Each structure stands twice: as structure tokens, then as C-alpha cells.
Amino acid sequence: MCFPKSRLLCRNDCYPLPLGYLLLYAMAKLEKCTTPNRENTLALRDAIELLSGKWKVCILHNLANGALRFSDLKEEVVGITPKVLSKELLVLEQHKLITRTVHATKPITVSYALTEHAHNVQPVIQALATFGIQHRAIIKGQ
């Protein structure tokens, strides 16, 4: 399955987790699974669903170095619209992966930072970035 180049618009070689038809099919089959590894597989599915999408991993990757204001995030995550960025930040905040801090300045500024819980995801994101770099090298080498 081929994914469009627009899915690879993040800086720092950060790649989204695309959910193809095969993965959706496997997730549907998982609901009927009764093996002892079912809990681990369901937990994996939950993690994939949480981090899936075009932008969430890129946002978390950019927040790894510290808090960023909304406008800074918009510049760092190449290609994201303000509306989509707002929606994704809200979802990440609801899942307790980021915190939103409103600063009493004129004009009011809002900054976003990773929670302690989100720092546990950083090794996974770094592994994805490393894999993406290696994968690009292999594909370009063909």
C-alpha cells in the first residue's frame, strides 16, 4: 500500500502512523480474539488508535524539547492548518498527553507542554523517527 507524500510533512523526520485497510481488518478480527495475549494486543490497539492520524505524533515530537506556544507549533508542524492543530491539541489534552497553560499577558498567550505520561511515549516516537530515516534511505537507494 502506498501513502501519499503529503503524509510525510513533519520536520525532524517525524512520521505519522498511517492506518491502512489491513490494520483496520486486524483490529476488527481482534475483537473476537480469545488468546492469552488478547490484553496486550488490545493495549497495543489502544496505543495505535491514540497516536494514529497525520499530526499527533508530530505534535508530540515537537513538544519533546519543551513548551511551545500555539503559533510556534503551527510553524514547526509543516502543513497543518490552525483549525486542525486546535482539534489535535484538544484531543491530546483530553488524553492527558499535553497540558495547556494560559498566560496572563496582553494579548493572551497559550503554551502547550508534554505531561509526565507523554514522556513515556517519547522513546516510541524516537524509534519511529529512526525507522523512518532508515526506510527513506532504503527507498531512495533503490
TrEMBL record:
GO terms for molecular function: DNA binding. The keyword DNA-binding applies. The keyword Acetylation does not apply. Gene3D superfamilies: Winged helix-like DNA-binding domain superfamily/Winged helix DNA-binding domain. Residues 33-140 form the HTH hxlR-type domain. Pfam families: HxlR. Keywords: DNA-binding, Transcription, Transcription regulation. InterPro entries: HTH_HxlR, WH-like_DNA-bd_sf, WH_DNA-bd_sf. It comes from the Bacteria. PANTHER family: TRANSCRIPTIONAL REGULATOR, MARR FAMILY. This is HxlR family transcriptional regulator.
